[in-house]
Amino acid sequence: MRINQGLGVSEEGELVEYSRCRCGATFTKVFGADGGEPERPGK
Fold it and tell me: Which pTM was predicted?
């Protein structure tokens, strides 16, 4: 089970998610900035 440790933004503008496992392993997931339109909340 991965436990969320936080979010950050890289120098390139990518969203970076940090998480860890109970066993001590750590994970980093990067979501690229594709330059598209921002998401808009539903009405």
Answer: 0.63
Confirm whether 10 is domain-assigned.
Answer: yes
Q: CA-CA distance, 36 to 38, in Å (whole number)?
A: 6
Domain-located, residue 37: no
C-alpha to C-alpha distance for 41 and 10, rounded to whole angstroms: 24
Which tokens in the block code for residue 3? 């436990």
Bridge partners of 7, per DSSP, are: 17
pLDDT of 11: 87
CB 34, CB 14: distance < 8 Å: no
In a domain, 41, yes or no: no
What is the number of domains present in the chain?
A: 1
